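agent> step 3/5: call structure_predict on target 'Cytochrome P450 2W1' (Aptenodytes patagonicus).
agent> reason: downstream docking stage needs a structural representation; sequence fetched in step 2, passing through unchanged.
tool.input:
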Amino acid sequence: CALLLSAALYVLKVFKESALNLPPGPFPLPIIGNLHLLDIRRQDKSLMKISEKYGPVFTVHLGFQKVVVLTGYEAVKDALLNTADVFADRPAIPIFYHIQHGNGVFFSSQELWKTTRRFTIATMRDLGMGKHLGEERMLEELHFLIELIKSFKGGPFQLRFLNMAPTNITFAILFGKRFDYEDPTFLT
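tool.output (status=ok):
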């Protein structure tokens, strides 16, 4: 009887949470949420498989934590450019916090992110940098970063490379030149 009551209360809680206007996603199990759907070694592939059913924007439950997942270039671009303020209050992403300690344009969150983003956009515009040039530089740097990560053939690599790519984009936009990741000047 107690088990049936607990199950009923859990189902009611999940339906109440669905009224929060979160995107659809797989139904969470008690306590573990959707963790059973994720391959710990290849979370990216697991999330892409979920996106096949629920689309490029969906919600998963990692235990008790609700997470909105964006998959694909268009979904991320739309979120960051067209609805950026909606995502400004997101909690810090642990790996990015580990890399940048919550600072910077790319890895900060909440009010710091809003302020830094506004400052950066205004400054770039004042320097004559349009959106097209920024996208070009980002795609170029992404190509270099992907090639670098591929060179490790699935093995571990230093997280500093993820920190260096955004810095390199900024240098390329401001100075017209990107640096090699091993360049001593860039490292300094």
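agent> step 4/5: record observation. The first strand starts at residue 57 and ends at 62.
agent> proceeding.
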